[in-house]
Design a protein that fits this description.
globular; alpha/beta; 19 helices; 540 residues; nine-stranded mixed beta sheet; binds pyridoxal-5'-phosphate; Rossmann fold; 2 domains
Length: 540
């Protein structure tokens, strides 16, 4: 793959891109993946461009008030690193023309990223691109029309020749609808156009949580115009009834991928009853190292300089401690084991698992044997998620010197926490974590993973050598049973392995840090991921 000029040109469609903390175009892991991918494409000179949306208010700024209540806050953001391409395209929503202005990101060293924006005086519907994941049904459909149909029109208006259209998640599916419509305009039937379009579409599926795979009422789709001229039967032949975006994308792609090897099994099983779908292969996620990893840590690991490795880690731990002090007033201890945990607040991620048995956890926290820094956001419309955050905040009040909650999780917190913690805790209910990338950031920074064998970790874990597993890959539908099983396993590994190694065998700890870095830095680099996407998904 040395001559990149012969590679197919790829248009990557994603609802979100995490490029920089100052850009309000992301919510979480999906955006982190997309942003890292575009940066890698730029670094390694791949012919790839991104299509996304310029979210005026971004996702949510989320805080907790004096009474422990989570609240969301929105403001309009300035994007002063975007160039006006002078291109405008039109899409139809409720039979009305909506104009989308096209901006080009010019900073932060990414592959070209075009962002669509409906916040224009000529639009009645200026709100469409206001809030990322801000609404359900009609407002989400409108956003997806802008991304998909507007995105294809943007490529045509800019005269960019594309070989492959890559949909990151089902949100981008309407781009496929527009490809079909274009072909029908040249005289093809719907079925012929589907067949031809499929040859140029690839799809990445993400969440194994069934509700996370968006579906829409076909009647709503018709009324808003998301059918793009197709009949009810034609729509149903792709996405079923109700219309499932993931199912539609699985049927409208030549090949699909899951985002880790275990997720490949989960996804194939999850969609096994869907006929006429593309095959789902596994391409494990990866990260853009320059964005997330302290280069001094990689260098010290490569030189196997134990003193440097430890001193650099302490430098990063002190940065995290200073950050915590500034945000919360709490002074953490440099000598005490620091556990980091930041996740979207969703029940399957089990943020509270470590608190399950207070007989075990109370003394560890009260005596300062461990300290835990949490962060995370709930979706603004998710009361269960907000309750999880409120519970974490109440734990931080119960253990005021050893449990911290950092409000308003973002890329900056993500970076500081995955560089400055000693241990990175991850305890989803298996197999519901598709991949996870925060653990990769941690691993390459010499922060030891302590994780359930879910997502990417089964591919990387050498237990007791580059981190730890707990739970032995056990799965059960009985949540009470599995939560008890996994929390017992967590306590066992924490008290018998992690804590003794940290306090009594520093030499082994530092060797594990080195192993953690060296065993992950190549395979979980976005460079490998790009090579796999090009060779397994994009090339004929
Ligand atoms: C890395 C990162 C994520 C993704 O991490 P997961 O392991 O999938 O939870 C999400 N949000 C932010 C801000 C991050 O930095």
């Amino acid at each position: 793959m040395s001559n990149k000029s012969t590679l197919p040109t790829v248009a990557y469609f994603s609802m979100e891109y995490a490029i920089d903390v100052s850009m309000r175009t992301y919510a979480g892991g999906l955006g982190i993946l997309a942003g890292d991918y575009l940066k890698g494409a730029k670094d390694y000179n791949y012919p790839l461009i991104g299509i996304g949306i310029k979210w005026k208010q971004g996702y949510t700024d989320q805080f907790v008030d004096k009474d422990n209540k989570v609240y969301d806050s929105y403001k309009n953001y300035d994007y002063n690193h975007l160039k006006d391409t002078k291109v405008k395209v039109k899409v139809k929503i409720y039979d009305q023309d909506v104009t989308c202005k096209v901006w080009l990101l010019e900073k932060f060293n990414t592959a070209p990223l075009y962002l669509l924006d409906t916040d224009l005086p000529e639009n009645d519907n200026r709100w469409i691109t206001a809030n990322l994941y801000g609404g359900f049904e009609d407002s989400r459909l409108a956003q997806e029309i802008v991304l998909g149909i507007g995105g294809i029109k943007t490529l045509r208006a800019l005269n960019i020749k594309v070989d492959i259209y890559h949909f990151n998640e089902g949100h981008a599916l309407f781009a496929g609808f527009e490809l079909i419509r274009e072909k029908m305009e040249t005289g093809l039937s719907f079925n012929e156009a589907v067949k031809k379009s499929r040859e140029e579409i690839v799809f990445t599926t993400h969440t194994p949580i069934i509700e996370g795979n968006e579906s829409h009422s076909i009647m709503r789709m018709l009324s808003i115009g998301a059918n793009n001229g197709f009949t009810i039967e034609e729509l149903a032949s792709l996405g079923g009834v109700p219309f499932n975006m993931t199912v539609g994308a699985l049927r409208l792609s030549k090949i699909s991928n899951a985002v880790a090897q275990l997720h490949k099994e989960t996804a194939n099983d999850m969609w096994k009853n869907i006929k006429n779908r593309s095959n789902i292969i596994g391409i494990t996620n990866a990260i853009h190292i320059k964005t997330w990893v302290d280069p001094d840590m990689i260098k010290a690991a490569e030189d196997f300089n134990k003193t440097e490795l430890w001193n650099n880690h302490i430098k990063n731990k002190k940065k995290l401690m200073a950050f915590v002090k500034e945000r919360t007033g709490i002074q953490l201890k440099e000598d005490s084991l620091l556990i980091g945990f930041s996740r979207r607040a969703a029940p399957y991620k089990r943020s509270n698992l470590i608190f399950k048995n207070s007989n075990i956890i109370d003394p560890l926290l009260n005596e300062g044997k461990i300290q835990i820094v949490f962060s995370g956001k709930a979706h603004p419309l998710d009361d269960t998620g907000k309750h999880i955050i409120e519970e974490l905040v109440s734990f931080s009040k119960k253990y005021p010197n050893s449990v911290v909650f950092l409000q308003n999780y973002d890329m900056e917190i993500g970076r500081i926490l995955t560089q400055g913690s000693d241990v990175w805790l991850n305890n989803p209910r298996r197999p519901l974590e598709a991949s996870g990338t925060s653990g990769m950031k941690a691993a390459m920074n010499g922060v030891l993973n302590l994780s359930i064998l879910d997502g990417w970790w089964p591919e990387a874990c050498k237990d007791g050598i580059n981190g730890w597993q707990f739970g032995d890959g056990m799965e059960s539908d009985d949540t009470e049973f599995i939560d008890k099983h996994d929390s017992d396993a967590l306590y066992e590994v924490l008290t018998h392995k992690v804590i003794p190694t940290f306090y009594s065998d520093r030499d082994k700890w530092i060797s594990m840090m080195k192993e953690s870095i060296l065993s992950t830095k190549d395979y979980f680099s976005v460079k490998r991921m790009l090579e796999e996407y090009y060779s397994k998904m994009y090339e004929k």
